[in-house]
Amino acid sequence: MRRTRQVEPSHLGLSDLIGEATASLAAGPGRAMLTALGTVLGLGAFVAVLGITATASGQISTRFTALAATEVTVADVGVSDGGGDPALTGLSFPPDADERVVALPGVNAAGVWWPIRPGRDLSVSTTFLPERDEAIATPVAAASPGLLKALRPTIAAGRLYDAGHEARADHVVVVGAAVARRIGLADVALQPAIFIDNVPFTVIGVIGDVERQADVLFSVLVPRQTAVSLWGGPVGGGARAAMVIDTSLGAAQVVSSQVALALRPDAPDAFKVTAPPDPQALREAVSTDLDVVFLALASVSLVIGAVGIANTTMVSVLERVGEIGLRRALGARPRHIAAQFLTESAFLGIIGGVIGTSLGVITVVAVALVQRWTPILEPLAVLPAPLAGMLIGACAGAYPAMRAARIEPVEALRR
């Protein structure tokens, strides 16, 4: 009996598969690039969002650490005498409060202040502008010389008062830039005078800007001892004194644990110390919020890109039904047809991933250069991006590939 020779099953090598997919994409480069555009935008946005978020978070952390993380505030809550209300007692800060706190390691400057007559502004008038004789209601605060240094001011004109002015209770003031504009003060070289509730004071300086406590720019600052001699110390819940401490970087937590005892060893409970929050926790919170918002937008772009690849691959399947039928008639198996279309869609994803990743990196660097920041890019967010594009393309082309694999040769050739 004669044995019939069985037909050997067809094979599709990896090199042939890649060659076929590449040739198919090269036949329509314009359509291939438009198809990959969604993935380009999605992965580009993904990389850019992660990079810009990391860069901005690092900048936020740097600025926060340089300013807010070096500020400690101390509030005077009062000392209870004989069961009375602590808030109704007088000033708890000792006369040498600035010197005691500055003596602590890590403290750059410290000063005490309180509002004079809280609840209503004092009348401020000037004599160096004859046409302006009306009084201006302006906040007035008593402040020690150390406070002016702790605020990190920028001097617009003149100088700040010092410990000598305070010790002598001199009638000198320093005004904020907003107050200077309101009263028409342009120069302090001639030592102009102003009247606070009809009490004369010499203006020796104008503060142009401060790094903390911006309300100082709208106020008139009087030496602490001068304020005590004229209006008395702070009494009552609305006029409690407070201290601002400027510390070195990293010293705020230690200073906050020591300052109450340094001020009043006999009554540390008279003060409420507020230390700055952890800058790392703030950065993580800001980073998390930015990630959630922008990564959602990037995810939408990726979904749109995947839909675009799936749609184009499906159209390609419908356009190439005759080619699919011919391949099947010549021995191609369904898995070979599916593999070819999957490879094409995966290639589209890789192309989109590479271009999108490059655009994302360029965007991060460009934003950092414009803002004068240091760009931060996580390798785990950049390097896997092309692989993510390939996976997106493969997933998007899965259904069209299965549709192509189920096409029967006879039905395909009949069309």
From TrEMBL:
Residues annotated as domain ABC3 transporter permease C-terminal: 297-409
Membrane topology classification: Multi-pass membrane protein
Primary localization: membrane
Pfam families, A to Z: FtsX, MacB_PCD
Localization of this protein: Cell membrane
Listed transmembrane segments: 34-54, 292-318, 345-369, 381-399
Limits of the MacB-like periplasmic core domain: 33-231
Keywords from the named record: Cell membrane, Membrane, Transmembrane, Transmembrane helix
Record-linked InterPro entries: ABC3_permease_C (IPR003838), MacB_PCD (IPR025857), Macrolide_Exporter_MacB (IPR050250)
CC terms in the record's Gene Ontology section: plasma membrane
Domain of life: Bacteria
GO molecular function annotation: transmembrane transporter activity
Similarity remark: Belongs to the ABC-4 integral membrane protein family.
The protein's name in its UniProt record: ABC transporter permease
